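Sanity check

After download, print the first record. It should look like this:
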Amino acid sequence: MKRTTAKEVETLLNEGKKLNIIDVREVDEVAAGKIPGAVNIPLGLVEFRMHELDKSKEYIIVCRSGGRSGRAAQFLESYGYNVINMDGGMLTWEGKVE
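Expected structure tokens:
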């Protein structure tokens, strides 16, 4: 499984890169703030909503600390999706939130 850090993601966003970020935290967690542009698909719904994702795109998976996003990334990868887990999750995010 590919991995990245919050700092690398923040740098790419600051450079104006268009990233596909999936936040797998629960709705109430995301309400407290998410990475700008991130799409919220709670971990329990990933299996039912993965048809919304495009296998030709690369997705960065985010959660609170990196555990749930790791599980989501492994699951999606097993179905042929191109995913990267953001290690440390939102606990290590220092960039803007919305």
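If your output differs, re-run the checksum step. Summary of this record's structure: The chain has one domain: 2-92.
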